[in-house]
Each structure stands twice: as C-alpha cells, then as structure tokens.
Amino acid sequence: MNRYTIIIADNSCLIRNGLRSILQKLENVDVVQSIDQKEDVCEIVDQLKPDILIINPNMLNEDCTNVKNSFFQSRNISIILLSDHPNDKNLYQADTFIDYQDNQNIIIDKVQHIIHQKIELVPTKQKSNETLSAREKNILKHIALGLTNKEIADQLFISIHTVVTHRKNITQKLGIKSVSGLTVYAILNNLISMDEVK
Amino acid sequence: MRIKKEMKLADVIQMNYMLIPVIHRFGINLGFGDKTVADICEEREIDLNFFLQLVNAYHDKDYFPKEELQTIPVRQIVDYLKMTHASYLNNTLNEIEQKIELLQSEGSEDKKYITLIRNFFEGYKNELTEHILYEENTVFPYVLAVEDIIKTQNKDPKNLELFKSFSIIKYADGHEDVEEKLMDLKIIMIKYLAPPENITLYHTIIQDLFKLEEDLNYHSRIEDKVLIPKIVLMEKSIQNLFQI
C-alpha cells in the first residue's frame, strides 16, 4: 500500500497536535511536519513535497484566495482547508474543508476521500493481478535453485537489469523478500521440487 | 500513558503485557504484590531512571526521551541489550523451534511443508544468532572502549587501537535486514500455506512470530536511537580530543 504524506499548518498547537492524533487512525498516512509560522509554509512545503497540505487560511498570504494556484498545482498537492469560520469554505477554492466543529469520523472521512481521489488518479500496479506471469515464475524457479542474477541472465539470454526488474516485481507481488523465502514459495507452488534445492 | 515511579508494577503490566519479558530481563519476577516501580527497583538495585526510560520507550512508540536516555551510561545500556540477547537465544527462539518440531512430529500429510518451515526457521535462527554474536563480540567491546576513553580522557593504547579498528557507522549501516526473513516466514504461513491438522498450535506459532518481531523492533530502537547516536557523539569528541 502506498503511503501518503501530510503537512499541517495552523498556528494553534492544540489544533496541530489534535489533528495529528486523529490522523493516526488512518493507516496509510504520515504527518511529516506541522508548521506554526506563516512565513515557513512555502519553504517547508517546497522542501518536503507532501501529498496533502492541511492549512488554516490565516496561514496563507492575504492575496491568496485561490489556493489551488500554480504553486500547489505544479507540486500535485491536495489542499484541505482547516478553519473555525464556515464561510472560509466559500472564500477559497480548496479540495475540501475541515471545520473546527467537525467530529473525528467526519474529519477522517474527508481526508480518506482525498486519498481515494489520489489513488484513482494514479493507476498502480498493485491493483493488477497478484499472480506471477509465466516469465516471472521461470525467473523465480532459477532464484530458488540458488542462481545469481548474472547466472540467470546468462541462462535466459536477458540482461541483468531485466532480471533485477523481474525480481523486484516478484517480491512486490508475493510480499517475500529473502531468497530462502522465495524458495519455500517455489516449492509450495511446485515450481521446483524439494530435492532440487541445495 | 507515561509509566511513573509511584505506579504499582502490577498496574503497569496490566497496561502492557509485552513488558513482562522486559522486566524479567531486569531480574524482576512476577508475584510482586502491590509494590511500586520505585520499591522494586530499590529492592533489586536497578537504576530507577534507566528502568523508567526503558519501559516507557518500550511501552509507547512515540515516547523517545532522547535526552534522558543520553544520560544513561553506555555500560548499562549494553548490559541490558545483552540480557535481551540472552533471552532470545536461550528462550524465545528455542520455544518457537520446539513448537515447530512438535507440529512436525504430529505426523500427517503436511509433514513435508512443516519441514520447509522448520528449515526456514533454522536459517533465520542462525542468521539472528550470528548478528547477536557480532554485536557481542565486536560492537559492544568497541562501544565500551569508547566510553572508557571518554571517561578517563586517556590514550590507553589498547583502547585506542580498538577505536581505530572500527566505527559505529559500519554497524549502523548493516542493521536493517535481519528481520527480513522473519517477515517472510510470517507471510508464507499466513498467505501461502494451508494450516496443518493442529491448527491451534499453528496459530500459536504465528502469534509467537509476531511477538518476537515486535520485541526485536523495540530492541533495535534502543540500539538505533540511543546507543548509536550516543556513540557517534563520543567518537567525534574523541577525534577532537586526540586530533585523530
């Protein structure tokens, strides 16, 4: 599962820490930084490039009513406004709006909604079939037999680079990293027999 | 919640049972009635500050009293880490191994697969043992020498030679991949194996593996976040001191 980074910008430490603790309930997000000074916003956002910025409008420059401006858009950052003035919702054009009065479930729903939008934008490989292709099975068999990348490349007439890519994909699909783990998988799935393992 | 010296140790354990092996490594046995943390530490001659910092660091992932932990002598941290190592080698790993053997001896058509799991676990056990021995034989003597140099401000030739032969960064770099096999084993047992007849035992083994992993993570946190930064600082000041 991909993880998403979040920056919280609000001048109240109660709000920053409270929000951070609520967001911990989401398993796929990390709050990488909180900002309490208006002046720091641009620099830190630029440096850390978060996926989502949760910001109080009073942390924005006065002329900045369109927060979906080029600065954020070019960095592909989703903006969530955070405020105790319900009117702010209409003053700025953000991806969504969290009111200080919102309860925990609503806040989580709103953030989750943004994350789902992001997931849909980037069609990931993880969504594809988790089973191995015939080519990958063949490579896995060679790994399980104890061959090195170089030996596999030579035997199958492909480049080492290709072998490495296949290995990466195999590990990602199966969730198994070590050679001995892959070997067990290969035996369980009858890609090799137990006697073949050295 | 922060664990404090006036709390009853029994309440602390109620709060987090994962601390049972931790206090055991300090030589504390269960059956302590209503004694507080402070009482027991006094009785057992355990450094109260170190005990509190350590159980809190175990108990709460976000609690990391870097500064307080920095005040604890290297010797004490090393002693504690050694106790932890001993408990892995003498107890945890053997217990899991015995359970896998039991599963194997119960004889059924799954036998072949259990052998696979057993061999895999053996491989992991050897790897972890090797890693632990490396820490005990190479890393710990080195960090103790570093502390000794700082304490005595003295260029004892033996210590100095040890200091030049190693650097804590070498150790920090290779400190990540030990848990890989353990994670693989869990994934194989959860995702790719049909459980054998004795399902209860099989489940217990998986739960044991999770607990071991969690405990190892705590353990590495002490090494990575306390011991290593402390030694990095000490190395720097030694270099300044002796213009090495």
Automatic annotation (TrEMBL), chain B:
Any one GO CC term of the record: cytoplasm
User: Where is this chain primarily localised?
Assistant: cytoplasm
State the InterPro entries in the record.
RIC_family
Q: Where in the cell is it found?
A: Cytoplasm
Name of the protein in question: Hemerythrin-like domain-containing protein
Its organism's taxonomic lineage begins at:
Bacteria, Pseudomonadati, Bacteroidota, Bacteroidia, Marinilabiliales
